[in-house]
Specification:
Elements (H helix, E strand, L loop, with lengths): L4 H7 L13 H9 L13 H10 L7 E5 L2 E5 L17 E7 L4 H13 L1 E4 L2 E4 L2 E5 L7 H11 L4 E4 L3 H13 L5 E5 L4 H11 L3 E4 L3 H13 L5 E4 L5 H16 L9 E3 L11 H10 L2 E6 L4 H14 L12 E5 L8 E5 L2 H14 L3 E6 L6 H6 L5 H10 L2 H4 L4 E4 L7 H7 L4 E4 L7 H8 L3
Parallel strand pairs: 3-6, 3-12, 6-7, 7-8, 8-9, 9-10, 11-12, 14-15, 16-17
Antiparallel strand pairs: 1-2, 4-5, 13-15
Helix pairs in contact: 1-2, 4-5, 5-6, 6-7, 10-11, 12-17, 14-16
Bound molecules: iron/sulfur cluster.
Length: 449
């Protein structure tokens, strides 16, 4: 947990020598607490104080990375319980579980389907983070299954096996191609063998235990054994209990219980009897503190809302989600279709785009760069004015693309009409509805305007 300025001050020499550029050690401590200066700016900090300050500056939840072929899934480094307090940083990794008892061709087909899946969301390309391969029936085919999956899709992996000897075989295959998987399945009985593997190969390991005090103790022992990157599974496979445990564990981690300061792993499919409930369990895991989420099936209908939910939770609440400025086709517009302009605030974009789409009349939606603000806010701030709108029209080559020269502006900025016509000679500027919900009615009369 971060130290206060007064706590830092007590660790400084307190000689007020001014060499750091500040008149007193207290002033320097306050700047250090605000992360506006570096500790090295004071040349007189003792080694003991330096160690204490370094320890205190560690994030309460360790950052754990799973990687393969340059792709990474990272979890941890979180500092708050609730997003509105500051922000959440590292999106929980979504992994799809495959089993080693399936034919190689089936494994390859599933791995390929997951690896090939991409979906565009507010201008971003979203993907599944990786795959989980689980050993079954003694794990005789585990290494072969891991190889088949990695040969098809070199993605970040979670390897799942109860037996450390089985895990060793699969892990060897993964390490041969440079993958750094998370190894899962250690318990109070088996953690030493898994820790030895994790240490030997430099990979993170997960530990499963139902009782949190025992889990904390096991994590401490694993760290003592030389493994720094640990992932925790509290063992609850019941939605309300899992929610309570995950919330409690986050609170304890932020309260500086270092033994629980690691990312959590969740298996939503194991928490529900009805497979149709799996997305709900997964959504709970994404929203409430899981760092790695292992899904039991791959379906675009399930994955897309989870990816979108994750994006919405793991963004900075002080920075609005924006869409890329540019020209968007809504439906299949032609050179005669209406042209609308709006700002790049994502909620505004989706409100307008959805209403154009719902009108049944395809259109062009020109999104001007208004620094992510809504129409009225951007206009008041001078970020959505005639110059910017005209610039967007010109940059997107609309005079060449369209048969007409008509641009519909939001009704809230009707005052811009004259200025835009000055900036865009030859164009007719039409004042559209104030609210997006009125666009379908407006499209019916657009042709006569
Ligand atoms: Fe205090 Fe160090 Fe700054 Fe000197 S250089 S005033 S000892 S913080």
């Amino acid at each position: 947990m971060a130290l206060s300025g007064m706590q830092i001050y007590k660790l400084l020499p307190r000689t007020n020598c001014k060499e750091c550029g500040y008149p007193t050690c207290l002033a320097f401590a306050m700047k250090l607490a605000a992360k506006q200066v570096e500790l090295d700016d004071c040349p007189y900090v003792s080694e003991e104080s330096r160690a204490q300050l370094a320890e205190a500056s560690q994030p309460p939840i360790r950052l754990v990375t799973v990687s393969a072929d340059g792709r990474e899934a990272q979890a941890g480094n979180e500092t708050v319980m609730f997003r509105h307090e500051k922000r959440f940083y590292n999106k929980p990794g979504l992994f799809v579980r495959l089993y080693d008892d399936q034919p190689v061709e089936a494994l390859e087909a599933q791995a390929k389907e997951v690896a090939d899946y991409t979906v565009e969301y507010v201008g971003m390309e979203l993907k599944v983070d990786g795959l989980a391969v689980e050993a079954t029936d003694g794990g005789a085919q585990f290494a072969e299954a891991v190889k088949a999956v990695l040969d098809t899709a070199l993605l970040p992996l979670v390897l799942i096996a109860e037996d450390a000897a089985v895990m060793a075989e699969g892990l060897k295959v993964a390490r041969e191609v440079g993958a750094k998987p998370l190894i899962y399945g250690a318990t109070a009985e088996t953690w030493q063998d898994f820790a030895a593997l994790a240490k030997e190969h430099g990979v993170p390991m997960a530990i499963r235990e139902e009782y949190l005090d025992v889990l904390a103790s096991l994590a401490a022992q694993i760290k003592e054994a030389g493994v720094d990157d640990i992932v925790l599974d509290h063992g609850a496979r019941d939605l309300p209990v899992a929610l309570a445990k995950q919330t409690h564990m986050r609170r304890l981690a932020l309260g500086n219980v270092r033994e629980l300061g690691y990312p959590l792993i969740a298996f939503p499919g194991e928490s529900v009897d009805d497979p149709e409930m799996m997305p709900i369990a997964a959504a709970q895991a994404v929203a409430k503190y899981a760092g790695f989420v292992v899904l039991d099936e791959f379906s675009p209908a399930t994955i897309y809302p989870l990816l979108a939910l994750r994006e919405n939770i793991y963004t900075d609440p002080q920075t609005p989600i924006q869409v890329q400025p540019g020209l968007y086709e809504i439906g299949e517009p032609t050179a005669d279709s209406p042209l609308y302009v709006t700002t790049n605030f994502s909620i505004t974009y989706f409100a307008v785009a959805n209403e154009i789409s719902g009108s049944g009349i395809p259109g062009w939606l020109l999104v001007a760069d208004a620094e992510g603000m809504s129409v009225l806010t951007a206009w008041a701030a001078g970020k959505f004015d005639a110059v910017r709108i005209a610039k967007a029209v010109k940059e997107n080559g609309l005079a060449d693309k369209l048969n007409h020269r008509k641009l519909v502006i939001p009704g809230h900025v009707s005052v811009l009409l004259g200025e835009i016509e000055e900036e865009l000679p030859g164009w007719k500027i039409l004042v559209g509805p104030r609210e997006a919900v009125d666009i379908p009615g407006y499209t019916k009369v657009w042709g006569s305007l």
